[in-house]
Specification:
The complex is a heterodimer. Chain A is an alpha/beta fold. Chain A has 2 domains: about 5-85 and about 165-245, 3-Layer(aba) Sandwich (Rossmann fold); about 100-155, no CATH class. Chain A has 9 helices and 10 strands. Chain A has helices spanning about 45-55, 75-85, 100-115, 120-130, 145-160, 175-195, 205-210, 230-235, 240-245; strands at about 5-20, 20-30, 35-40, 60-65, 70, 85-90, 165-170, 195-200, 215-220, 225-230. Chain A has a 6-stranded mixed sheet with strand order 6-7-8-3-9-10, sandwiched between helices. A 4-stranded antiparallel sheet of chain A has the order 2-1-4-5, with helices on one face. In chain A, strand 4 and strand 5 (about 70) form a beta hairpin. Chain B is an alpha/beta fold. Helices cover about 65% and strands about 5% of the residues of chain B. A 4-stranded mixed sheet of chain B has the order 1-2-3-4. In chain B, strand 2 (about 30-40), helix 1 (about 50-55) and strand 3 (about 65-75) form a beta-alpha-beta unit. In chain B, helix 6 (about 185-210) runs antiparallel to helix 7 (about 215-255) and helix 9 crosses helix 11 (about 325-350). Classes of the chains: A alpha/beta, B alpha/beta. Chains A and B meet through helix 3 of A and helix 8 of B.
Chain lengths: ~260, ~400
């Protein structure tokens, strides 16, 4: 991936805190347009908290988040709303609306934000479900399909409005290796066809090495990010032992200048 | 080599005894802890007081070593005791050599001490009384603040509804109307029929002593139209529908469905709360009118069956006892009660915690809150109608 492409998302000196408890401080990174970008780190380090800050479900204690040249942190409700319509978000639990069928789940954003007729909405919903391999499941309720299918249905809903940025919080959590691999492939092909930027929270090494263009590592001990770069580069030239241990499942580093 | 033997738990063996753990001072100032016999969690843990005494003596030992030569079998009991001894020694500043322990045990000890304890990880000790009162007061204040904020947001949402700018699905409204209207009819019928019946029974016994049995109809009609039909129906709806709202919305919150709505740019207040509020505000007055009829029917059953009054007599007496204003008062109150039940249910659901236990708590709390509101508001109605002479 060429590094000359413009930054799509920029995070500036972001500090996240719950009351007096600082989760992470001074996060500084940017995500290039069209990249698949991973937020990595051990359990409980604040990956999902950063995710919630990026999509505006939490307010930062300090710092800013930029989307293109729009300051998301300082934006008014209207600007935020306009930006959010270009986000496609899937949560850790698939968060499908359980009282609606899959077609209705995918169709609801179309119903609200387009002028399509009900027949057209159903057609588009069927297409989005087909894209994630759920052809024929339009009239099923979320409870009637498996966990892996729910994740894919959530992805279909996230891409309903052809978003510019796709956010995934632990997409492969609870999936078997094959489903997880299929989901990775799906994410790559959607990125390639939609031209969207993808931001993923994950600690799945197989996914990280398979599809990441770029990544940051959140260090729970330091309470900040201690590395940014393509995961393979980080593994081969680790900037610190904890990154190396994370990327090699606990392997011992052979670093120059490190004890 | 001795190994980890979980099966040793099956035969508990003799209870823990003092000779399992023997403390000896060796000649070179080293404290030797001899571990002997069978160790088992089911038999209990031997005392480490002897080790503590030896470590706390005026001339503390230079080191502490273990001797497991006479150990027969062991499980977590031994690991726990060795960990305790290690902590005691660390506190006394005495170095511990664990090379005398079985290798399996050494590996377990290594695991137990591999990750340092997280600071602040233990539960905070119980705060003093004043601090707890203060915390509770602050929480109550925040709770009130949240409730007011919710009411404010709900009011704004109703404003959007009136201007025709609120966004929710008509189908959702229809489903909630069905669930909280038609499907509530059996239980509303049963309860109100029985309440009418009970009032008539109690009244009949007393009034018959004065030869005034004919006034049972008045008693039942006034009590039902002004108070009982709307209160009983509201309480049924609080238990049946209000708790349902809280559980539905709470589960949606746990599953991040509400956040997904917000991310799609759909106000959860409009999409989830308004249809429920609207459904109960529409259905409660209708249920109340229905409950009036059923309550009076219950009273009539007693009067006609027990007191031998004729249906026409009972009907005439009822018509004379209550007017439209009495019925309107009950129906008006039921509208308010319906809104209160929906608000309590939705508020507890939308502010629910993020786990299964919180959903249960939200449902319970929605019922309690709704009933408290219903009774309090009914009291206010009683005072106001008395002052206005209605």
């Amino acid at each position: 991936m060429a590094s000359s492409r413009e930054a799509h998302v920029r995070v500036e000196r972001l500090t996240m805190a719950y009351g007096d408890f600082v989760v992470m401080r001074d996060l500084d990174f940017s995500v290039r347009r069209g990249d698949i970008f991973f937020i990595m780190g051990g359990s409980g380090c604040g990956k999902s908290t950063l995710f919630r800050h990026l999509i505006g479900l939490e307010e930062p204690a300090a710092g800013r988040v930029w989307y293109g040249d729009v300051d998301f942190t300082a934006a008014d409700a209207q600007t935020r709303q306009a930006l959010r319509l270009r986000f496609g978000v899937t949560f850790q639990s698939s968060a499908l609306w359980s009282a609606m069928t899959l077609a209705e789940n995918v169709g609801l954003p179309l119903e609200q934000f387009t002028d399509l007729s009900p027949e057209e909405i159903r057609e588009v919903a069927r297409l989005k479900l087909a894209l994630v391999g759920l052809r024929g499941f339009e009239d099923h309720y979320p409870a009637e399909i498996s966990g892996g299918m729910q994740k894919r249905a959530a992805l279909a809903r996230a891409i309903a409005l052809d978003p510019e940025i796709l956010f995934f919080d632990e997409p492969s959590a609870g999936l078997d290796p094959i489903s997880s691999r299929l989901l990775d492939d799906l994410i790559v092909s959607l990125r390639d066809s939609l031209g969207a930027t993808v931001i993923m929270v994950s600690h799945e090494l197989s996914s990280i090495f398979a599809i990441a263009d770029d990544a940051i590592f959140l260090d729970v001990e330091e309470r900040t990010m201690t590395a940014q770069g393509p995961p393979r580069v980080l593994r081969d030239h680790p900037p610190n032992p904890r990154v190396y241990r994370f990327l090699t499942r606990g392997g011992q580093p052979a670093l120059e200048g490190q004890p | 080599m001795l190994s980890w033997r979980p099966d040793s738990r099956a035969d508990a063996g003799p209870p823990a005894s003092a000779d399992q753990l023997v403390v000896e001072a060796a000649e070179d100032g080293v404290l030797r802890v001899r571990l002997r016999g069978r160790w088992s969690l089911r038999a209990g843990l031997p005392s480490t007081a002897a080790v503590e005494r030896a470590l706390g003596s005026e001339t503390p030992p230079a080191a502490l070593v273990f001797d497991a030569a006479e150990l027969v079998a062991w499980d977590s009991a031994l690991v726990t005791v060795v960990c305790r001894i290690q902590e005691l020694a660390a506190r006394a500043g005495v170095p511990v050599r664990s090379d005398g322990l079985p290798s399996g045990l050494q590996r377990l000890l290594g695991l137990a001490t591999a990750v340092p304890a997280r600071r602040g990880g233990e539960a905070a000790s119980r705060a003093p009384l004043l601090a707890r009162i203060g915390t509770a007061a602050l929480e109550a204040w925040h709770g009130t603040h949240d409730a007011l904020a919710f009411l404010g947001e709900a009011t704004v949402a109703v404003g959007r509804l009136l201007r025709g700018r609120a966004v929710f699905r008509g189908r959702d409204l229809a489903l909630i109307v069905q669930a909280s209207g038609a499907q509530a009819l059996p239980i509303v019928s049963l309860i109100n029929f029985l309440v009418g019946l009970i009032i008539a029974f109690v009244g009949a016994v007393q009034l018959a002593r004065f030869g005034a049995g004919i006034y049972v109809a008045d008693l039942v009609a006034i009590a039902t139209a002004r108070e009982l039909a709307c209160i009983m129906t509201a309480i049924i709806m609080a238990g049946r529908t209000g708790s349902g709202f809280a559980a539905q919305l709470g589960t949606m919150r746990v599953n991040q469905e509400i956040e997904a709505l917000a991310m799609m740019g759909l106000a959860p207040m409009d999409f989830l709360v308004l249809p429920r509020l609207l459904a109960l505000a529409l259905m409660m007055p209708l249920l109340c009118i229905y409950a009036d009829a059923i309550g009076i029917l219950g009273g009539a059953t007693v009067a006609i069956g027990l007191l031998g009054q004729s249906p026409l007599q009972y009907w005439t007496q009822t018509r004379g006892a209550i007017g439209l204003d009495d019925i309107a008062l009950g129906v008006g109150k039921s509208l308010v009660f319906g809104i209160l039940v929906a608000l309590a249910g939705c508020m507890r659901g939308m502010t629910c915690g993020r786990d299964a236990a919180a959903v249960g708590a939200a449902a319970t709390s929605a019922v309690v809150l709704a009933i408290v509101w219903i009774i309090a508001v009914d009291g206010i109605f009683a005072v106001v109608t008395h002052l206005l002479g209605i």
